Amino acid sequence: MAEVRLENVAKAFGSLTVIPDLSLHVPDKSFTVLVGPSGCGKSTLLRLIAGLERPTRGTVRIGGEDVTTKEPSKRGISMVFQSYALYPHMSVARNIDFGLRITGVSKEEREARVAEAARILALEDHLDRKPSELSGGQRQRVAIGRSIVRNPKVFLFDEPLSNLDAALRTQMRVELAELHHSIDSTMIYVTHDQVEAMTLADQIVVMNKGRVEQIGSPMDLYDRPASVFVAGFIGSPK
Length: 238
Ligand code: ADP
Ligand code: MG
Prior knowledge:
alpha/beta; 6-stranded mixed β-sheet; 4-stranded antiparallel β-sheet; 10 strands; globular; binds adenosine-5'-diphosphate; binds magnesium ion; nucleotide-binding; ATP hydrolysis activity
């Protein structure tokens, strides 16, 4: 079970309160999408779940367990960023394997996981190549592959496609939906892109100024936006 719960979480950086008091339930195996204006606290929220930031107040639970003070590597999560730094001198296979090398997983098991990730991401024919020989979409898939091999319970994505051109974004959107289907884990996904939100999400969380403005299925939000703000974000005619 890998539901995520935030209970009355607050986060301040010095005198700047970014998240005043936020509670959120992300169901196990859901594809939950966070949207909201730049600076509203989306990345901060992901970083709190990942353990890259500690809340000023409140509790973070993953799979029912209080992980508020647990270090990131012990939380069973994996994060994919917008800017994915691949190692240029390493092959695709080694790039995917890299994060596993320090985990104590056996060589055989590592090779099996890399092969499985390559299959899921259609990178089988590119494993011996260097990142510079890949397209942007293939590179982003390598970055996702690094997460997959760690078998996380929860994937966190922070605008992973925003550096790609429109055609690639569309293709990767389809692939992300298939990925969610095939590996059956919980995904929390931040995006600026309304189409991504509407097509990928089981539930959309609309954030504004560190608060949840509305939460619901894409159809809920489209049909019954709680405010003009939400309507504007979802693109419904309110
Ligand atoms: P979003 O991802 O929605 O664009 P962020 O979570 O990155 O927003 O940022 C929310 C607010 O928190 C912004 O005002 C940002 O400047 C501030 N912030 C984020 N991280 C830090 C930090 N480490 N120190 C100080 N302020 C920060
Ligand atoms: Mg951000």
